[in-house]
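Quick one: structure for this chain?
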Amino acid sequence: MSTSENRFIGVWHLRKFLESSQKELDAEVGAVEEATGLLIYTYDGFVSVSMLHPALGFMGYSGRWEVDGSVVLNHIDVCSRADWIGQTQRREMNVDGMVLTVSAHRTEDDGSTIDRTLVWERSSRER
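Got it. Here's what it folds into:
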């Protein structure tokens, strides 16, 4: 495993959840104190995430992960959304010290786009 892949490995706590779309430009769908979550990337290639947001409910998935250039690919085996099982989710990720920023872009059936940015902080036990 390369050094660039190692920087994602660990336990991360959700600190900020932002969502914007063409329908609601730059609408923030939650603040630090409203959304909670835990993201885990293991050295042997597994990923697990659990998030809870008052307006959006629970979201969780697990599977395998790999790096493809500047993108992390999460191959979903188990998910709270049945339509994600067996899919690969692309995530743009940036690590800056103890902060991991994860971005995802999705096009809806009506052609509108949704951009999500999640800001995670490395678990204090990992420091």
